[in-house]
Design a protein that fits this description.
By secondary structure, this protein is an alpha/beta fold. The chain has a domain of 180 residues: 2-enoyl-CoA Hydratase, Chain A, domain 1 (Alpha-Beta Complex), CATH 3.90.226.10. The protein is 47% helix and 17% strand. The strands form 2 sheets. It has a 6-stranded mixed sheet, sandwiched between helices. It has a 4-stranded mixed sheet with strand order 4-6-8-9. The chain is globular and about 50 Å long.
């Protein structure tokens, strides 16, 4: 079974559902599959918009803490794959919408922020970016996406505070453009139905006008991501391997029951 379930819905809306239980955690396979799905959506004229979501109780929990430690060469390949997959999502010349129905944590929240618009359901789940607390540095792609989408004040609170917040904070911090009820007044107005309808509406806009406007809005951030040198990438990765950082992740693995 694919770790990203793809379905073309009414109005040319392509739903990409992360399906890697239990937490839709990010690893090489998910990033590679996501990049491939996005490239296919870009080339397919039948696709007018893309909705990214997660199966189960997680949108995504971020990087997979259960993955084995990687050597330097493999880690650099992962870093580059992370960059390329996020650039594919950020620069897709079609509307992209995050449908957040569960926990969006760390790299999972960055995936949501890489989408043009973000809708979250009201519910009992957590959001936030706790990388600093577990000794993880932010890849250039992640940092630029956060800076693009959030105010400096909210980014400082989220990144340096490194706490996880209740879902109802999504509007305040800029994760979501709108919070929706799980079910509407009419049976046909559930969370998913509303998001898919919005996606179809935006997807019906003239393609070239949307793509040109989107490219202008993200141009500076994209240039900085693409301008990162290998030396800068290695410097970012080096933060991960300090003894303090490794100790923080060991404690996190123990907390999660991961060896």
């Amino acid at each position: 079974m694919s770790i990203i379930r793809t379905e073309l819905r009414d109005g040319g809306v392509c739903v990409l559902a992360l399906d890697r239980p239990p937490a839709n955690a990010i690893d090489e396979s998910l990033l590679r599959t996501l990049a491939q799905a996005l490239h296919m959506a870009e080339r397919d004229d039948a696709v007018r918009a893309v909705v990214l979501t997660g199966e189960g109780s997680f949108f995504s929990a971020g990087f997979d803490f259960s993955a084995p430690r990687r050597d330097d060469e493999v880690a650099l390949e992962l870093y580059e794959l992370y960059r390329d997959a996020h650039l594919a999502l950020l620069t897709l010349p079609k509307p992209t919408i995050a449908m957040i129905g569960g926990h969006a944590i760390a790299g999972g929240m960055v995936l949501a922020l890489a989408c043009d618009l973000r809708f979250a359901v009201r519910g009992n789940y957590r959001i936030g970016m706790n990388e600093v607390a577990v000794g993880a540095s932010f890849p250039r792609a992640a940092m630029e996406i956060v800076r693009l989408r959030m105010t400096h004040g909210c980014a400082t609170e989220l990144l340096l505070g490194a706490g996880l917040l209740p879902a109802h904070e999504a509007l305040r911090i800029g994760l979501a453009h709108e919070m929706l009820e799980a079910e509407g007044f009419l049976e046909a107005e559930g969370f998913e139905d509303v998001v898919l309808a919005r996606a179809a509406e935006i997807g019906a806009y003239p393609r070239d006008a949307y793509a040109h406007t989107k490219a202008g809005l993200i141009a500076d951030a994209v240039a900085r991501i693409r301008g990162e040198t290998q030396a800068e990438a290695i410097a970012t990765m080096t933060v991960w391997i300090s003894e303090e950082s490794r100790a923080a992740r060991r404690r996190q693995r123990e907390k999660l029951g991961v060896r």
